[in-house]
Write a structure and sequence with these properties.
The protein is of the alpha/beta class and 515 residues long. Helix content is 37%, strand content 19%. It folds into three domains: 6-200, Methylglyoxal synthase-like domain (Rossmann fold, 3-Layer(aba) Sandwich); 237-358, Cytidine Deaminase, domain 2; 388-507, Cytidine Deaminase, domain 2 (3-Layer(aba) Sandwich), CATH 3.40.140.20.
């Protein structure tokens, strides 16, 4: 491949979104570039005194099928695809009276916007599947050695400036960059079409998964400083939260923020969530966010230092005043009032994420990389299968409410997960241990370190207890009620131990492992 600049003599311009295209083509006009166009785009150029040749006049073949066929013609595609250095290609197009096309400016029908629009009919969606546009974009991208392709109006100004400065020449480096964007664009477009039909037919795990994502941020580094990292997004979810203050988010900030956000979404009552290393180290419900925060900070004050916080309501001055002297990495909330924003912004390293617009967003499939492969699963959006009492003692109302609270946190804690709670406040958390009984012991230890008594608290476990030892350890610390999925071969032994210890126990029938 000869990597040299090309002279742009002829351009094909056919765009649905006409933003900025007149200015670009004014430049082409000044440089003496011949412009081919279609329909509404050609009409726009004529209205702006830009000379244009209608594609149907060039091909001597009319548009047909209500515009479904406009540019699908050999005179268009051979003009784009022929290789200028191949004598046979040159001879062929000359024989058939085909003119070379050096620049293709095309953007596509708004399939994504139409398919997401409430009330859009299937007919409307199908008619917005572009055929000619992607075909031209791919053809020009394939022949980028000789042709420039522009499919993003954001590139018009730079392309126009380069053409002006070089008197109509377009560099190889520019064409290569435009080629990469072109293939990214068509890949994303095709993925959106297949995803629409998969989703509309309720296919949760299709035979193939294509997800194109856009780079939203370059991150300072990954989990560790020697790892490069970036955040890519599909334009839904927490990545679209507004960063109102603080320095750029890091890789670990995003991981922890997402964990905090997921837990906070589980509650209707005012809740405060504190995350450290992707696990909850504080959490509580209160009459207000400030009260919830005061309680949450008592769970594990040491770990809360430098944590990531989430609130399921608008952060006000009362919350801001509590956090004034706390080192907080990130705060995720459903908005911040003006005075709270002013107070919290005084610490320049404190990142404030307004997630109001994405709070109700559907949680997408979860992807986990295992080298060159990806594990895919539905988001864990359920809580219980069937809650049933399995012990002789029935839990009282306070215990029931505390178990429900603990269960919602346990669901988002790394396995093996054990959560102690009392008065809708976390009392101790044991996470990520290889043995479930060790997680219980860790939760007991954390409760003691925070000087919170586990006496009268409840316990939630993300999976069943394989032996009675975990129940016995919890009872020693003062736990009075337990919520767990059940399903162990030794459930009868575990239930018997709970009865002997006077505990109430509920089975949920649903496990919540989080690896």
């Amino acid at each position: 491949m000869i990597e040299k600049a090309i002279q742009v003599k002829r351009a094909l311009v056919s765009v649905h979104d006409k933003t900025g295209v007149v200015a670009l083509c004014q430049t082409l006009k000044e440089l003496g570039v011949e412009i081919l166009s279609t329909g509404g785009t050609a009409k726009l150029f004529k209205e702006n005194n830009i000379p244009v040749i209608d594609v149907s006049d060039y091909t001597q073949f009319p548009e047909m099928l209500a515009g479904r066929v406009k540019t699908l013609h050999p005179k268009v595609h051979a003009g784009i695809l022929y290789r200028r250095e191949f004598a046979e290609d040159v001879e062929t197009i000359e024989k058939h009276g085909i003119s070379g096309i050096d620049l293709v400016v095309v953007n596509l029908y708004p399939f994504q916007e139409v398919s997401r629009r409430k009330g859009a009919t299937l007919e409307e969606v199908v008619e917005n599947i572009d055929i000619g546009g992607p075909t031209m974009v791919r053809a020009a991208a394939k022949n980028y050695a000789h042709v420039g392709v522009v499919c993003d109006s954001g590139d018009y100004a730079n392309v126009a400036e380069e053409l002006k400065q070089s008197k109509g020449m377009l560099s190889f480096d520019t064409r290569e960059k435009l080629m990469l964007k072109a293939f990214e664009t068509t890949a994303e477009y095709d993925a959106s079409v297949s995803s629409y039909f998969q989703n509309s037919r309720g296919i949760a795990l299709p035979s193939s998964v294509t997800r194109t994502m856009y780079k939203a941020y370059d991150l300072r580094y990954g989990e560790n400083p020697h790892q490069d990292a970036a955040l890519y997004t599909r334009m839904t979810g927490l990545a679209q939260a507004k960063l109102l203050a603080g320095k750029e988010m890091s890789y670990n900030n995003w991981l922890d923020a997402y964990s905090a956000y997921r837990i906070a979404r589980e509650f209707e009552e005012p809740v405060a969530v504190i995350i450290k290393h992707n696990n909850p180290c504080g959490g509580a419900v209160g009459q207000s966010l400030a009260e919830a925060l005061e309680k949450a900070l008592k769970t594990d004050p040491t770990s809360a230092f430098g944590g990531v916080y989430a609130f399921n309501g608008k952060v006000d001055v009362a919350v801001a005043n509590v956090l004034t002297d706390w080192f907080v990495e990130v705060i995720v909330a459903k908005g911040f009032d003006e005075d709270a924003l002013r107070i919290l912004s005084e610490k320049k390293n404190r990142r404030l994420l307004d997630a109001t617009e994405v709070w109700e967003a559907k949680l997408p499939h979860e992807f986990h990389s295992i080298g060159g492969s990806v594990l895919v699963q539905d988001a864990d959006t359920l809580l219980y299968k069937e809650v049933k009492q399995v012990t002789k003692r029935k839990p009282n109302q306070d215990e029931k409410e505390d178990m429900d609270f603990a269960w919602r946190f346990c669901k988002h804690t790394k396995s093996n997960a054990i959560v102690f709670a009392k008065n809708k406040q976390l009392v101790g958390v044991g996470a990520g241990q290889m043995s479930r009984v060790d997680s219980v012991r860790l939760a007991v230890m954390k409760a003691k370190e925070a000087k919170l008594s586990a006496k009268g608290a409840v316990m939630a476990s993300d999976a069943f207890f394989p032996f009675p030892d975990g129940i016995q350890e919890a009872a020693k610390a003062g736990i009075t009620a337990v919520m767990q999925p059940g399903g162990s071969l030794r459930d009868d032994e575990v239930i018997k131990a709970a009865d002997e210890l006077g505990l109430a126990m509920l089975f949920t029938g649903m496990r919540h492992f989080r690896h």
